[in-house]
Amino acid sequence: MFGFVKQDLRLAFNLLKMNMRDRYLGSSLGSFWAIANPLFMLGLYTFVFGFVFKVRLPGADTTLAYVVWLISGYGPWLATVEALSAATASVVGAAGMVKNMAFKTELVPIAAALVGMVSLVVSIVFLFVLLFAAGNLPSWHVIWLLLIVVLQFFLIVAIGLWLSALNVFFRDLSVVLPNLLTIMMFATPIFYPLDAMPVVVQKLSLANPFYLISTAYRDVMLQHQSPSTWGILYVFLLALVLFWGGLKAFRRAKGYFDAAL
Known about the structure:
Elements: H1 6-23, H2 33-52, H3 64-93, H4 95-100, H5 107-113, H6 116-134, H7 145-169, H8 172-187, H9 199-205, H10 209-221, H11 229-253, H12 257-260
């Protein structure tokens, strides 16, 4: 499919393991930081909004309801940021391997994007703990989680193919990307409900795939309902178009990587 064969899956898995090992190479705790870092951020936001600002959702009796609602959207976003950042810098970071080894270079950003899966798993486990504390245990609708996770990373990989190729020729992209993602985070209803935004932004958010993904997580984890069918289909079709176009653009551009790297 898309020009990949079974052996490419094994190579992508090996690249993923290499990324995880090299990411924390030289640190005393090693890969433990892959769990500690997102756990620290989730704990920090829980403390700040739950115990310092004591934000409450409309109609809620405690601040824990807002914290649970926040983490259910922010956790997946945290994984998205980590995955897109890793994918964008992946080809430049693996310049030696890209220039000196014969393999499908497009596997590099794909494997790099999957690094964000660790943060997502940590976020989901952290959310389950909060739900247990709030007495709002998930229902059978959590079986949708697998589809939502696959869909989220399909979209991330699709975007990562574009960004990783562009970053080879425009190195400033990886520098400015954190700022762009921060803007996107506040433009997406993650910290506040959709109806708290201007009407124009509300309508635009309905076409924002990251908002639809965060809503899907909240639907199955908090609202005990199935995600929106049209939302799932829209994100899938958008990811499919971006992946197909990104793969073609990447394969066309990689012939120029040696000179740019």
